[in-house]
Design a protein that fits this description.
12 helices; alpha/beta; Arginase, Chain A; binds zinc ion; 10 strands; 372 residues; binds N-[3-({4-[(3-aminopropyl)amino]butyl}amino)propyl]acetamide
Length: 372
C-alpha cells in the first residue's frame, strides 16, 4: 500500500543547488515522485495508492524536532526575502563552525545568520513552500505509520488463525519528498528538513499499547537505512536511546563525510543500538546483499523488532549522478527480498535516488522484491 500526496510534487521546487562549487539543477526534484508513482501504477494491481492524509498536528513533529528550529523553518523564507535574499530560497551565509562557535557568544540576529545556525550544508534550500512541503511529508509518513499498526495487528491475527505464515509480512510505503534522514533535531541539510522516518518511529513508540510485546513495553522498532548516504539525522535523534535500533549501510567516504563510522555506536542507554556499516565506493550487488543479510542476522533479528522502518534510498544505483556504488536494477528485488525474510511488518519511507530514468524501476524493485 502506497501513501503519498500531490503536494509532494507541487510544493518545494528550488530552481538550483550548488554541487562541487557549481550551480546545477536541483537533483532532489519534484518529478522524482511522479516517475516513482507512474512506475508503481504501471504494475497492474500490485500497488494500492492512497492520497488520504490524516492531520496528526504538531505534537509528533515536536517530539523529534526542537521548537526554535521549527519556528525558524516556518518563517525563514519570508524573513530572507525581507532581508533582500535571493528568491530561489535560503542558503547558509556563515556557518557557526565549532572552531568559531567555541569562543563566539553572539546569537544569530537575522535570517542570514540563522541560515547558518540551522543548516549544515548547501543542499537544503528553503523556498516559499518548503516548510509546508516538509510538514506534509511528515503527515503522509505518520498516516502510513498508523496504517502499519493496523496492518500488523491484522497480520498477527491471521498468523494466529493459521491463515498465513510469518513469511508474508505486510509492507507499506510512504512516497514522500522532501526526504528526511539528514535532518537532525535542530538542523537541516542534505535536501532534508524534517526527519519523516524519525517522526514516525517516535510516534509508534509513543502509542500506548499494553499487550504489545513480550515485556509489555512500547513497540520495538528497527531502522534499516539503505540510502547511499549515512543518515546523520536519524542517528543523532536516537543516539542515546535503546529503541529504535538504528542501522545503516552507506558509503564510507562520501557525503555527509563526518558521520557514519562504525565507531559511532550510540551513547548512554543507546550504546550498542547504533550500527553503522560503511561500504567501499563501487560496492556491487553481491557485496551489498551479503552485507545487508549479515546486518539483519547479527543485529536486526536479535533486537526482536515489532516493526521495521526503512530509509529507502536508491542512490546506491550504478548510474546515480551524485553517488558511487554499482548496485544495478537486478539488485533491488534482492534487497527487498532480504528485508521480507525478516518476517516483520515494514514501512518503507522514500529518501534519496537521483537517476530519474531508473528511479521508478529501482524503487519498485525493492517493493516488489519485498512482496515476493
Ligand atoms: C537524501 C539525500 O540523498 N541527500 C543527499 C544530499 C547530497 N548533497 C551533496 C552531495 C555531494 C556529492 N558530491 C559528489 C561526490 C561524487 N562521488
Ligand atoms: Zn542519499
Amino acid at each position: 500500500k502506497v501513501f503519498t500526496s500531490t503536494l509532494c510534487t507541487t510544493l518545494h521546487t528550488p530552481a538550483f543547488e550548488f554541487l562541487s562549487g557549481s550551480e546545477t539543477h536541483f537533483f532532489e526534484s519534484p518529478d522524482r515522485r511522479d516517475v516513482i508513482l507512474k512506475y508503481l501504477e504501471s504494475q497492474g494491481d500490485a500497488f494500492e495508492v492512497t492520497e488520504r492524509v490524516e492531520d496528526f498536528g504538531a505534537g509528533p513533529i515536536e517530539r523529534v524536532h526542537k521548537q526554535d528550529f521549527l519556528d525558524y523553518l516556518k518563517t525563514a523564507y519570508e524573513e530572507w526575502i525581507q532581508e533582500g535574499g535571493h528568491p530561489n530560497g535560503v542558503l547558509p551565509g556563515t556557518i557557526p563552525h565549532y572552531k568559531v562557535a567555541r569562543l563566539g557568544k553572539l546569537k544569530a540576529a537575522n535570517c542570514l545568520a540563522k541560515s547558518g545556525e540551522y543548516c549544515f550544508d548547501m543542499s537544503a534550500v528553503i523556498t516559499k513552500d518548503t516548510f509546508k512541503a516538509a510538514w506534509n511529508a511528515a503527515q503522509v509518513t505518520l498516516t502510513a505509520a498508523k496504517d502499519l499498526v493496523r496492518a500488523a495487528d491484522e497480520y498477527e491475527k491471521s498468523v494466529e488463525a493459521g491463515s498465513t505464515t510469518r513469511e508474508n509480512p505486510p509492507g507499506l510505503y510512504a512516497l514522500v519528498r522532501p526526504p528526511g534522514h539528514h535532518a537532525q533535531s535542530d538542523i537541516c541539510g542534505g535536501y532534508c528538513y524534517l526527519n519523516n522516518l524519525a517522526i514516525a518511529a517516535q510516534w509508534l513508540i509513543d502509542q500506548p499499547d499494553l499487550k504489545s510485546n513480550a515485556d509489555g513495553g512500547p513497540k520495538r522498532i528497527a531502522i534499516l537505512d539503505i540510502d547511499f548516504h549515512h543518515g546523520n539525522g536519524t542517528q543523532e535523534i536516537f543516539y542515546s536511546v535503546a529503541n529504535p535500533l538504528y542501522t545503516s549501510l552507506h558509503s564510507v567516504d562520501d557525503y555527509p563525510y563526518f558521520t557514519g563510522s562504525a565507531l559511532e555506536k550510540g551513547e548512554g542507554e543507546g550504546l550498542g543500538f547504533n550500527i553503522n556499516i560503511p561500504l567501499v565506493q563501487a560496492t556491487t550487488n553481491d557485496d551489498y546483499v551479503e552485507t545487508l543479510d549479515k546486518l539483519i542476522q547479527d543485529h536486526v533479528i536479535p533486537f526482536k523488532p515489532d516493526y521495521i522502518l526503512v530509509s529507502l534510498g536508491v542512490d546506491t544505483y550504478k548510474d546515480d549522478p551524485i553517488a558511487g556504488f554499482l548496485v544495478t536494477s537486478e539488485g533491488y528485488p534482492r534487497i527487498g527480498n532480504s528485508i521480507r525474510k525478516i518476517g516483520v511488518p515494514t514501512l518503507f519511507i522514500q529518501e534519496g535516488g537521483y537517476c530519474i530514468e531508473k528511479l521508478g524501476l529501482n524503487v519498485g524493485g525493492i517493493l516488489l522484491g519485498y512482496m515476493g
